[in-house]
Amino acid sequence: KQEVTQIPAALSVPEGENLVLNCSFTDSAIYNLQWFRQDPGKGLTSLLLIQSSQREQTSGRLNASLDKSSGRSTLYIAASQPGDSATYLCLSAGNNRKLIWGLGTSLAVNP
Amino acid sequence: GAGVSQTPSNKVTEKGKYVELRCDPISGHTALYWYRQSLGQGPEFLIYFQGTGAADDSGLPNDRFFAVRPEGSVSTLKIQRTERGDSAMYLCASSDPGAGANVLTFGAGSRLTVL
After folding, report:
1. A94: closest CA among B32, B36, B101?
2. Using a CB-CB distance cutoff of 8 angstroms, which residues of chain B are in contact with residue A30?
């Protein structure tokens, strides 16, 4: 059974720290990987998408990397802010259009 | 439209009632997905449409759940004889598979509460 695992499940950091969220996947034939943000009780906002042919994508203070050989993606958040507090989910898309979600990392950035 | 629109944003109903949730995808997106998400959980796949047809409905939990997309754009998720366990956030996403496959854009969700 193909899976996506996100570690840690929860993270609390002081404002200003650089931090890394991890996503591991078992599908070696991944087509792309997408990172989402979800605020409590809200829908999902797409942050970054990495195609299987790419190594990383950057948007502002966010950088996502993809290493297919090791089955890992990381989301790097620079200079974290209280407004970054949310749950971050990764979604892997396989070549057969199979979509698999991680359970998310709940991030709290404390002022 | 510019984004995926879901209505209603909030629905409170009584056990046993019938509920419809609507999703209006991004114009031109042929793929449409329904997920539901319980508190503290990741999204749970329900059904995937490609055009008008349900390409994969393996996630529908039982026959009380049904979804349609008659014209290949707007989709309606229908829940009969609602139960308290149906309470969740129902999320809809659309994508344009021809433009790069499985890049999902989500709506804000419809929160269903069954009393």
Report:
1. B101
2. none
Its sign, for the CA torsion B112, B75, B66, B53, is negative
User: What is the pLDDT, as a whole number, of residue B47?
Assistant: 92
- DSSP-based three-state secondary structure for B86: helix
Q: Are B106 and A101 in contact (CB under 8 A)?
A: no
Mean pLDDT score across all residues of chain A: 90
The whole-angstrom distance between A104's CA and the closest CA on chain B is: 7
Per residue, the 3-state secondary structure of A65-86, as one string, reads: EEECCCCEEEEEECCCCHHHCE
Q: Which residues of A touch B105 (CB under 8 A)?
A: 46
Q: Would you place residue B104 in the very low, low, confident or very high pLDDT band (cuts 50, 70, 90)?
A: confident
Written as six digits, the tokens of A30 are 């991944």
